[in-house]
Amino acid sequence: ARSASALAMNASPAPSALNTDILTSKQVPINVGESAYGFVLERDEYIKESGAKARIWRHTKTGAEIMSVCIDDENKVFGVVLRTPPSDSRGVPHILEHSVLCGSRKYPIKEPFVELIKSSLNTFLNAMTYPDKTCYPVASCNEQDFYNLVDVYLDAVYFPRLTPDVLAQEGHHMELETLNGDLSFKGVVYNEMKGAYSDPERVLASWSQRALYPDTTYGVESGGHPRDIPDLTWEQFKGFHERFYHPSNSRIFFYGDDEESKRLKTLSAFLDEFSKQDVSDSKVTLQPRWSQPRKQVLGYDAGEDDLERKYMATLNWMLPETISCSPANLVAFSVLDHVLTNNSGAPLHKALIDSGLGEEVLGGGLEMDLRQMNYSIGLKGMEKESAEKMQEVIMSVFEKYAKEGFSKETLDASLNTIEFQLRENNTGSFPRGLSMMLRTMTTWLHDSDPLVPLRYEEPLNELKRQLEKGEPVFQNLIKEHFLNNNHRVLFEMRPDPKAAEKEEALERERLENARKKMDQKAFENVLKETERLKAKQAAPDKPEDIAKIPTLKKTDLEPKVKTVPFDVMPLSGGAKLFHHPQTTNGVVYLDLGLDLKSLPAHLLPYMSLFTGFLTEMGTNEQDFVSLQQRIGRETGGVRSGSYISEMVSDNLTNAPLMALMTMRGKSTAKQVPKLLTVMKDLLFDVNWDNQARFKQLLTEERAGTESNVGPSGHVYAALRIRSQY
Hints:
The protein is of the alpha+beta class. Helices cover 39% and strands 21% of the residues. The chain has 24 helices and 22 strands. Strand 4 (52-59) and strand 5 (65-70) form a beta hairpin. The relative contact order is 0.13. Mean pLDDT is 91; it is low at 1-18.
């Protein structure tokens, strides 16, 4: 095995403290309380956890709040975040998120972002609708490209070209192909949400949340329910934009190594056109607490086969308001969530699977993104009458650990994992600045301190001090917020073979009623409008309008390709070590590759199970619970998989393939010996003889795969096509 292996290591010592003078030089040279470019500086602070200088500005004319983060990161991020609480499930926030991107005052073409992306070097370009906010973020490492994106986004958000046709296209309209045909509802968001509501797990997650907050904006579907979307009127649509898409209701975020003065000048060109507006109606109201727990049941389309084991349910609690909790308490909630369900050996996860009531654990666990947090956990693949039994299992786990507490090994594993993740701040391909922006919104959106979520050092240390003193931190959390908290709902979804048929019947009835109210002229007008809208959608934009979209020039590009330095060192047995010296905050990343050429072809289909179960089976010395605690306690994580790729070759039609089994691990520099020992044990000492455990994992794997097929048909189709090449 050793002679057929390849190693890749990416390591460096922790970087020295960032030169704050360099960051300061990027900032506008004024003090708190002074003004520049129409903005007054309200706060100026250093965030040591991220090595950034953060400033809070307020636009004088409108009251818009701006966070300006100067940091040594070339991946610059900008975002406009608006509080957009819907009062019903007609989907107006979601439809507006699409619609403002359909042309604007400066860029009057149908799809400015399709044109923009043709010459953009963006690292992120999207928009997102949440239950209480809508975000418009962009990111790029190229400064000119970044400000091109910022300009187009600001014009789209504040000066969109909204028309009834845009609502019809992106939201809903009645369509008729021929006079002999049937009426139908069409619209981008309408079709998207019909797809979303075909995913049972997505429906369960949505309703589990909505059931907890029936009296607030969280009690409706911000994305829009297919039944309700056709009720959205043009007046409601336009009025929602006028109320909430205003600088006074904006939280604007900048992040990166660009000049702060350029940020403020760019913003003032847009914001100065507005005056202050009362946006108090955008505040998210609090859900009153219940005196008794509740239960809700919903039927869903589960197909026609094996219905007796297609019941699913979640148990859900409403927790305290995020901004009312101390930072240490918020960290404690996160640690508790990790302890309970983070892996298959976690107490609550294990108890649910061991109960045999279901095939796979459901629920998102702790949700901190809403004004009042919540916790959700459950099972799928259950039989009838199992929901209450599941609830008993969950409550018994809470009762056990409220009384006994968690072992030191369990807490150490979760604390180490969470601290490692916070310090590493590894967001993968997701820009770090965007991750920072979204974290600030947990408090900033609700008029509280946006810097609190970015400062984890002191809250984490405070929690550690409490635990060292023997304080029953987690026992108290469980008692107060789970066992003695009556604001909880058991939400069950039951298979109904006629559910889809009922939905289709309701839609047909609605369309038939609409047809009955039309005379022949009105009916013919639907056909004419269908043809007109399609013709308008197909018509090309004017060349002079397309030319208004900003593009990059050759002079805007860096002429040299950036490369990652590495050294190659031969190891005994024919293996090679590729060493990449990088700034990694003291984290060592180790990738191990094992050549699969000698593996018989008939075993290749089982590689995904083999690699997926490596950390789940336990070893000959440790059961899987102890092994997972050890990985959490002694490393930053270990995972395994497969890597298959064509190699670089002059033969473009028949290049050789590389097929590797990979094992990837990470740790602090001090933990490297322990990381290597863990990886060695996973490769050579896994206990594959535990048939009961293996069957349990297979059952979970099957349940997950089955649930993914319906909502991910396009993914399977693409994989099938790719397999032919």
